[in-house]
Design brief:
With 282 residues, the protein is an alpha/beta fold. It has ten helices and eight strands. The longest helix is centred in the N-terminal third of the chain and has 20 residues. InterPro entries: 3-OHacyl-CoA_DH (IPR022694), 3-OHacyl-CoA_DH_NAD-bd (IPR006176), 3HC_DH_C (IPR006108), 6-PGluconate_DH-like_C_sf (IPR008927), 6PGD_dom2 (IPR013328), NAD(P)-bd_dom_sf (IPR036291).
Length: 282
């Protein structure tokens, strides 16, 4: 059996967090992006994430982290035992990456889209072997949150599901398999709620802080929806909402003006230093 090597395409917030999880469990990663500066920042963020994960006890005790290799060449995914696509939630971008990855990997290699809402069967049109395609929805930060939503498309093979479940459990994750649909479970419920929370603030009903405090104290939401938006990345949230709206027609999924305004201003959340809250470190 081949030694495991996980290729991750996209070195943004999610790709970096998933890379940190994988190398922290002793499995080597090749992280691919088109921007060398993004890769440099991802490597630094992953090193910081490993330290954080160790301090919080999120990594197996005594496990030596594996190597994280960064590259600008997508060809470097060819020898991977699994590929995780973690690019932005734009269909045209995912189609471009998944088509290219599918042409490079060996037959039977799981091709995993880390997606927050685009149906897997829609993506199946972009790959050579739809039976090898499956979805995951890691939560941010992936190296701390143990639950992972796994999305089986109508054409996903049993072997692919089994392989990905084995990979995730080996990484200390708790996978839950759901059927394919726009937004699946977590995004279909969470993203419209965050959109509603932003519109409550826009209407002047309550402040950002009060919305989050009430949702935490009264309804048990661990961080509050607007702090969660900052963690997701408001630009990523808007992209995901637009993808949901296009596929469901649900008006609750049409991004509200406050979210759109924040994206225009570059107030994208924790990663930019300002979103609904201000952060001392971007």
């Amino acid at each position: 059996m081949d030694e495991p090597l996980i290729a991750i395409v996209g070195a943004g917030v999610m790709g970096t967090g998933i890379s940190t999880l994988v190398v922290g469990h002793g499995v080597p990663v090749v992280l691919v992006d088109v921007d060398e500066g993004v890769l440099d920042r991802a490597a630094a963020a992953s090193a910081n994430g490993l330290r954080h994960a160790r301090l919080t006890g999120a990594l197996p005790p005594g496990r030596t982290p594996a190597k994280l290799r960064t590259t600008l060449s997508l060809d470097d995914v060819a020898d991977a035992t699994a590929v995780i696509e973690a690019v932005t939630e734009l269909p045209e971008k995912k189609a471009e990456v998944l088509t290219a990855v599918s042409a490079l990997v060996r037959p039977g290699t799981p091709v995993i889209s880390n997606t927050s809402g685009i149906p897997i069967d829609e993506m199946a049109a972009w790959v050579k072997s739809p039976e090898d395609l499956i979805g995951t929805h890691f939560m941010n930060p992936a190296y701390l949150i143990s639950m992972v939503e796994v999305i089986r498309g109508p054409r996903t093979a049993d072997k692919t599901v089994e392989s990905v479940l084995s990979l995730l459990t080996g990484l200390g994750r708790k996978p839950v398999v759901v059927r394919d649909a726009p937004g699946f479970v977590t995004s279909r419920l969470l993203h419209p709620m965050i959109n509603d929370a932003a519109q409550v603030v826009s209407a002047g009903t309550a402040t950002v802080e009060d919305v989050d405090t009430l949702m935490q104290g009264c309804l048990g939401h661990p961080t509050g929806p607007l702090r969660t938006a900052d963690l997701i990345g408001i630009d990523n949230l808007v992209d995901a909402l637009e993808a949901l709206y296009a596929r469901t027609g649900d008006e609750r999924c049409r991004p509200g003006e406050l979210l759109l305004e924040k994206v225009r201003k570059g107030e994208l959340g924790r990663k930019s230093g300002r979103g609904f809250y201000v952060y001392s470190e971007a």
